[in-house]
Design goal:
Oligomer: single chain
Structural class: alpha+beta
Distance between the termini: 39 Å
CATH topology of the largest domain: FAD/NAD(P)-binding domain
CATH architecture of the largest domain: 3-Layer(bba) Sandwich
Largest sheet: 10 strands, mixed
Number of helices: 16
Shape: globular
Number of domains: 3
């Protein structure tokens, strides 16, 4: 996946694209994979980097949605459970089973949650990840040694899926390219073009060269997530906003707070949300909050009250009470929830179902949803886009389409497991690069050669791309990632032909970004 090749494809293409996708998060990338695999000429444009916003800041779960079952949204649970199973089959190097323990402190909790989770198992059917069952107190503490034992009666165990969101996004971009799509990051759409009041393409600016491109399209898809209203109102200035963003915050702690291979699920917190404490990349990840916000931002920041909420709830259930100084990184993501007419404004109750709208101009907007259902969202969107574009009808092929990196025994890749089938190549590159096997920082699991790989194979363009999304250094330890920034900048400069001034600017920009992830 090479950005210069993608730019060359823009210059060499005279005919209209079948489908232009605006937005390079989970939904947009899924659409690009779906459309390209059907044989449609597909172009994806992302204003920043792939998965820059919401899609790299999730709870890292591919799940059916226990809370949606509690809300009575059985159809969403069924769809999510099916998609969970499909994704595990198509990307086993990134998606795996994870046991969750629901601690029981009151007499009624074991039968209540046991019945609900048994129903969850039944709905999963052949796509199930494992059967739920009751645990006594000893079994519960064996799985979660740091769980608060005072008053504990036992627990209920069930199984869901875990993944690495940003890594999956990169693999989706690579998959789209392998099926003939052209994908570009740092390409901002500045306006829509029209013919006879119908959308006929976009104007986009390459943020690296400042060159402007006018690109014709038979159909344009707005898959910009929390920024969907920008394109909707670009198309129709009088259109009513459709997105009601909600902020979710997570904190990352040392693994000593949650040793073992099981996660904790707290079914009901003070704000009504489910709280998760999960092992992830040898850390403990705690989340999430649900805070309505007024507008969208590429880089939202956690609020003090959200951090206090997570620390307080973590202390209730863990024997080792986390303090602000224990937080290795704190991050915020925005959910692109679709407004409900006459709704209460409480984002915790807004459905996570996706919404597909086609404007009079033909602009197609897909909003809502979640990572787990990205493939089904893409399928629904391309079905409609092909009609708008007047394309030959082709059945979706993504249900059994292996995602780039697919590897049934990825664990054999050791520290490079998340690269899947690319693990051997990454390992070789580290060995062939001067200093390539050196760690970026002592507390981070990444090597210098991975920076070179990110630049050559994964379209990383700057220090942030490498430390935030090609690796997950920023989330695993924000302070350590700042220490690694100068080395990353030097490696990228050597690979891409940048000077010392560029390196200094990159380090300064990254330090500014990372400050928003450091608590205290």
């Amino acid at each position: 996946m090479n950005r210069l090749d993608s730019l060359d494809a823009l210059d060499s293409t005279q005919d209209p694209w079948d489908i232009v996708v605006v937005g390079g998060g989970a939904t947009g990338l899924g659409i690009a994979v779906d459309a390209a695999s059907r044989g449609y000429r597909t172009l994806l444009l992302e204003q920043h980097d792939f998965a820059k916003s919401t899609s790299s800041k999730s709870t890292k779960l591919i799940h059916g949605g226990v809370r949606y079952l509690r809300q009575g949204n059985v159809s969403l649970v069924l769809e999510s459970l099916k998609e969970r199973g499909i994704l595990r089959e198509n990307a086993p190097h990134l998606v795996h089973d994870l046991p969750f323990v629901v601690p029981n402190y009151d007499w009624w909790e074991a039968p209540f949650y046991g019945i609900g989770l048994h129903l969850y198992d039944l709905l999963a059917g052949k796509h199930g990840f494992g059967k739920s069952r009751h645990l006594d107190k000893e079994e519960t503490l064996e799985r979660i040694p740091t769980l608060e034992a005072d008053g504990l009666r036992g627990g209920t165990i069930y199984y869901d899926g875990q993944f690495d969101d940003a890594r999956l996004a990169i693999n989706l971009a690579q998959t789209a390219v392998e099926h003939g799509a052209v994908v570009l990051n740092y390409m901002r759409v500045t306006r829509l073009t029209k013919s006879n009041d119908l959308v006929s393409g976009v104007v986009a600016v390459d943020l690296e060269s400042q060159r402007e491109y006018e690109l014709r399209a038979k159909a344009v898809v707005n898959a910009t997530g929390v920024f969907a209203d920008v394109l909707v109102q670009m198309d129709d200035p009088d259109a009513q906003p459709m997105i009601s963003p909600s902020q979710g915050v997570h904190i990352v702690l040392d693994r000593s707070f949650l040793p073992g291979d099981s996660a904790i699920m707290v079914p009901h917190t003070d704000d009504g949300r489910i709280l998760f404490a999960i092992p992830w990349h040898n850390r403990a990840l705690i989340g999430t909050t649900d805070t309505p916000v007024d507008g969208a931002s590429l880089e939202p920041t956690p609020l003090k009250e959200e951090l206090d909420f997570l620390l307080t709830h973590a202390a209730r259930y863990l024997t080792k009470d986390p303090e602000p100084a224990d937080v290795l990184s704190a991050y915020a993501g925005l959910r692109p929830l679709v407004k409900e007419a006459g709704g209460s404004g409480d984002t915790a109750t807004i459905s996570r179902d996706h919404t597909l709208r086609i404007a009079r101009s033909g602009l197609i907007t897909i909003a809502g949803g979640k990572w787990t259902t990205y493939r089904k969202m893409a399928e629904d969107t391309v079905d409609q886009a092909s009609v708008v574009a007047g394309l030959e009808s082709v059945r979706a092929r993504t249900e059994d389409l292996r995602i780039h990196g697919y590897c049934a025994n990825a664990e054999a890749g050791g520290e490079f497991e998340s690269y899947g089938s690319d693990a051997d190549a990454v390992h070789s590159l580290c060995g062939a690069t001067a200093g390539g096997n050196d760690r970026l920082a002592s507390s981070l699991p990444y090597r210098a050669g991975e920076v070179v790989w990110a630049a050559r194979e994964e379209m990383a363009r700057c220090v942030e791309d490498v430390l935030a999304r090609r690796t997950r250094a920023l989330l695993l330890d924000a302070r350590a990632s700042v220490d690694a920034a100068p080395q990353v900048a030097k490696l990228l400069a050597t690979e891409m032909g940048h000077d010392e001034a560029w390196q200094q600017d990159q380090v300064a920009a990254y330090e500014e970004l990372a400050r928003g992830y450091i608590v205290g």
